[in-house]
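ugh ok fine here u go
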Amino acid sequence: MDTDAVGRWVKEYERAWRECDAPAVRDLFTEDAHYLTSPYEKPLVGHEAIEDFWNDPQPFEMEIQSVTVDGSHAVVRVRVTYRDPEQEYLDLWELDFTPDGRVEHFVEWAYWPGKSFTA
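structure:
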């Protein structure tokens, strides 16, 4: 993987999420992908679990701020802003890619204003 390929994957992820295009999960993730909404949460495993999670029609804006790639592992920093109700998140995504360009392991580290970053 390189930064351009990861950027294209993130843009397709954004499009699919925005359009609630659950079938696109199969193009983005492996059949047994692990999708963690937080590093300590139980993972969503497989297409069906991720598709169910993606059913979120809430309007948002998303901006890629940086992409770092080391072989098949990437870290992406994104800013996500929801409009109704208004809420901003700064996320770090850890992405582990397979040779076919799909993600087999996704971990989200989300932070937002006014929330504690410690236990």
